[in-house]
Amino acid sequence: MPLDLNTPVKFIKRIGDRVAANLATRGVETVEDLLYHLPFRYEDRLHPKPLSQYNTGDMASLIGEVRGTVLLRTRSAPIFEMTVGITPPATNPGAPGPDSRTRVSTESSMEGLLKPPPTQILETVKCMWFHGTYLKDKFHPGQHIALYGKLEGSRSGNALNAPPGSTRFKMIQPTFEILPGPNATGEDAEFISLEMGRIVPIYESLGGTTPWGAKLTSRWLRRVLWTIFRELTENQDAANTPGAPGPDSRIRVSTASSVPETLPQALRQRLQLPSRMDALRDLHFPPAGTSMTELMSARTPAHRRLIFEEFFYLELGLELKRRKLRNRIGTTFTTDDNVRKALKQVLPFKPTTAQKRVLGEIVTDMRSTKPMRRLLQGDVGSGKTIVALQAALVAIENGYQAAMMAPTEILATQHYLAAKKLLADAISPHTNRPYRVTLLTGSLDERAKRDARARIFRGETDLAIGTHALVEEKVDFDNLGLVIVDEQHRFGVQQRFKLMRKPGPDGVAAEPDVLVMTATPIPRTLALTVYGDLDTSIIDELPPGRTPIVTRRIPQERSSEVWDFVRKQVAAGRQAYIVYPVIEGAKDDQPELDFAVTVDGEADRKTPSVAPSKQPSSSKRFTAKTGQKLRSATEMFDELSTGPLAGLKLGLLHGRMSSDDKEVTMARFKRNEINVLVSTTVIEVGVDVPNATLMVIEHAERFGLAQLHQLRGRVGRGKQKSYCVLVTGESISSEAENRLNAMVRTQNGFELAELDLEQRGPGEFFGTRQAGLPNFRIANLLRDLDILELAKSEASSFVETPDKTIPRPEIEAVWTRLKHQWQRRYGLVEA
Ligand code: ADP
Ligand code: MG
Q1: Residue of 18 and 436 predicted with greater confidence
Q2: What is the C-alpha separation between 267 and 270, in angstroms, rounded?
Q3: 0.85 exceeded by the pTM?
Q4: Are 684 and 581 in contact (CB under 8 A)?
């Protein structure tokens, strides 16, 4: 049976049932899976970089000859030492290398390499392995060897047994491969061209062993893959046989061969992308002359092709989704004088240019017959809420209901109070009566919830504000026209789809418009993928009169200066937040900081720190895992009330309080009956108290960048100068150091978001595993933005104005493939 991509790996030579079972545990079941197990690096064994071009500290890939070995029995551990003579640069660099495409045997060109070159050896490298007894019989002088590892300076001279020479470098525990010698036999001889005289692929191990107990090494994988390619090429050649029947032999090649082509040929030609088969083969066995720099940075034509393909299908799917939406029927609002009057009478201030523009974009969507799916991005404090409320008024003045959802009860309540205040004296020009606003959150008692639901259902409310209770509990609207999702990044993408889908099942005459808002600026790369199905508006301007927030770092030992500053601000009539990563002390199993210990593994590196002298040496403090004693909101509330901040009015707020208590505390803080709010990250999003001018964040090194930025956004909301103080504990990882420095350096949310993405990766960026990111096999969102943008524009023109030179069957094949892959590979939920 000829191999094709779907052939189970057990049918491949050298694999068989047992190895196949083992590979299956690593998700490798078919030939295709194996082909997409790509090398993670390459070694240039054709033109290895000469030792003279390396510096201490470089990672080096060297080819050399074993000169001598010795096992040193030291007191602590036996050390195996080996001296390797490094082959100097080839004297005939013009010699053609083996071409992986055509030549399997390359004996003629191997000769030069296999000839013993001892007279030319210029330099030696000393290699050392601790506990290296097992290597004792592995090496013997004269063997050829490939080494990979970090070059370290060596002052001790040559290893024992080695002939004189100069040793500038040593390598500690390098990875190595013993190369086949001139007398190699059997498989070693057959595959000699895979190990030497070429750019050699190095693979991540797939674990496990062969039936005879050998490890599934890079060498093993090379041989397996080489065999696969040889067979696939033979199949392809057969499929290519001239004279094969069929109207269009060109298509036959791309669809009927054993590695089906997935991109239309005309598209590939225009973008100069190799075929899928060539791309895969070139990544496993790069032809001579491939740029090592391009290989290592994933920018060879082969890389670009496979990355493009992944992005192209993703963007194609998103494009279709957008179009499907455009063909659905949404609610069509009008903006007449009544609407304009309504908007005017509630505006408490002059909107910024950006707010006006964005409202314009939203209203344009609302007036159209298509359902709106718009993402409103705006940095913290940019004034999204009022824009959203204006959009709600447009809906209400058109006789519809609007719903607004917030991720926390505090925020929902705040929106509710803000909306009520804003609409308090307003009369709807449309109905000639006041606006009716209803709050619905999970923690209301059953009766209140029932009441709220009834008012919503009977159309006795114009604007429903709530947490996701609005979606998760059964809430039916009378006539819902607009859904607003605030701080959407906190919801996770799955939830977002749920929110968006909830109101209007397909088939209902008109579905509501949806506006999602986020204060976490979304780096472009994610906007094009996770949010690729939404139109975007950005408020890129802060309301006037804001002064930049002064941000400072200060070590915990100097807390007293911070408390003095808090007192000063309060004396000036201002208010402050003090934020802690955890709610309580030692018994706190759920710190209110979701990635405190996962941010960058820094918890593991923490060494126990001594509590600052002012702290009571209480054993109650949180010490789990980290060894570091964390100050907690509850304990510090007690301590500050009776100590450094005695006499001020302090409040405590955290997620474990009842929602009544939370609400009361928040309301008192808003009215300035509380000067200082000691809190956890429950205040992270949305909370708006313009008189608060100081944000103190303790253990700031433990917070993620997005969180720090959100927290800082709680101040600087009024005319007064505002401050953010980052109090840091003792051991700070270099990543945390970068975060803190970035916070001090900039207030630009987009800049911080990019750094956050870089540090945490796309999967963690939203602080939620269910971010809905597609699974890419090769593409990397951090690295490949340029290809992503290309793929997006190609996808959209593929749908909009298909290239006339692409034959129909090829276009059909693209759609078939998309249908087949969309759910499985990209895992994006249909909205
Ligand atoms: P966010 O975009 O973070 O949700 P908010 O909508 O909470 O920001 O607005 C932040 C603060 O700025 C609020 O106190 C709001 O009343 C005020 N604000 C919003 N727009 C303006 C404006 N155009 N002029 C003056 N103040 C404004
Ligand atoms: Mg907001």
Answers
A1: 436
A2: 5
A3: no
A4: no
Element spanning 64, H or E: strand 59-73
pLDDT score, position 494: 54
For 166, residues 6+ apart whose C-beta sits below 8 A from its C-beta are 123, 124
Angle, helices 409-423 vs 659-670, to 10°: value is: 50
Residue 3, C-beta contacts closer than 8 angstroms, at least 6 positions apart? 11, 12, 31, 228, 231, 232, 235, 258
- Which atom of ligand 1 is found nearest the CA of 545? 25
Q: Which amino acid is at 403?
A: A
Q: Which helix (H) or strand (E) is 412 found in, with range?
A: helix 409-423
Instruction: State residue 493's pLDDT score.
Output: 53
Calculate the CA 149 to chain-centre distance.
29
> From the CB of 519, is ligand 1 less than 6 Å away?
yes
Asked if the model's pLDDT at residue 596 lies above 50, the reply is no
Site to probe by mutation for ligand 1, drawn from 688, 691, 719, 722 as the one with most ligand atoms within 8 Å of Cβ, is 688
Q: What is the pLDDT of residues 69-80, one digit of tens each?
A: 999 888 888 999
3-class secondary-structure state, position 201: strand
Length of the chain as a residue count: 831
The pLDDT tens digits of the residues spanning 94-118 come to 433 344 333 333 334 444 455 444 4
**Identity of the highest mean pLDDT range in 449-458, 726-735, 800-809:** 449-458
Q: Which residues pair with 575 in a beta bridge?
A: 692
Residue 552 CA to residue 535 CA, distance in Å, equals 37
Regarding the beta carbon of 712 and ligand 1, being less than 6 Å apart is answered no
Contact indicator for 534, 499 with CB cutoff of 8 Å: no
Task: For 171-191, give one letter per residue: b (16+ CB within 10 A) or e.
Answer: beebebbbbbeeeeeeebeeb
Q: What are phi and psi of 437, to 5 degrees?
A: -115, 135
